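hey so u asked for the seq, here:
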Amino acid sequence: MAEKRIKTNVGAIIPTINSVYESLSPAQKKIADFVLESPSEASELSVSELSKVTDSSDASIIRFCRYIGFDGLKDFKAGLGIEIAKLNFDDSILDTDIEPSDESSVVAMKLKSRLDNVISETINLLNFSELDKVAECMSQAKSVAAIGVGSSGITAAQVKHKFMRIGMNVDAFVDGHNMYMKAALMNQGDVLLGISHSGTTNELIKSFKIAKESGVTTVAITHNPRSALAKCADYVLINGNRQSQLQGDSIGTKIAQLFVVDLIYSVLVKTDMTDKMSKKSRTIKVVVK
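ran it, structure tokens below
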């Protein structure tokens, strides 16, 4: 069975390469490294020239282009050229690593720039048709469960808090055994939402496989559309965050995940604003008393 091709949006080539980087073969990583380090030069080279500077074969270049959603190098270069022109690509803007000499005000501005970039990257990476379908599935589901481990478990808890307040039957799980039991008890039409930046969390992958046996709709929020979790999912929503050296899996990832959750919530609420706001008002009243 042929692997599903990634849909790369205009202006999202560099974020897409970053998101699938860990899934690339060694030969493809050499090509990706060159494109990420020298995007302007990469957009002007022929197949043979790009093969030479990356020590790759012509076939590897074509496979790389197809892997990230293009028919060949010509289409890839055209898209990359548009992206460079649109973003006025500048490494100094994208590099927000914190230096020992930075004052706290400089650190704050770098973090702000990082978060601005994360939101823009997430918007470019998202497939909004998939997002609309996820919102529709969740609105019709009798039961929704959000699962995540570690910091992604915090996002799962936020899903429960946010959607429960508008009257949905939703729960969150951060422990593997509880995830497995919940997945086994879900039914066709229910939605299991798995949150994992890497897409490699074993507990989530196993839970998806269990849930799919009962016809449960599975949704992955992940940075890697080629990950094992994404391959198990019915729908994949890609969050941004090209991690810097000192920040690692920190606030950028959390903001990206919460942004995707808020998008689902907003799309879902706008389809029935009166009912959802009425239920939210009722939950607010009992909380503030």
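The two ends are 57 Å apart (CA to CA). Residues 89-95, 244-248 have pLDDT under 50 and may be disordered.
lmk if thats what u needed
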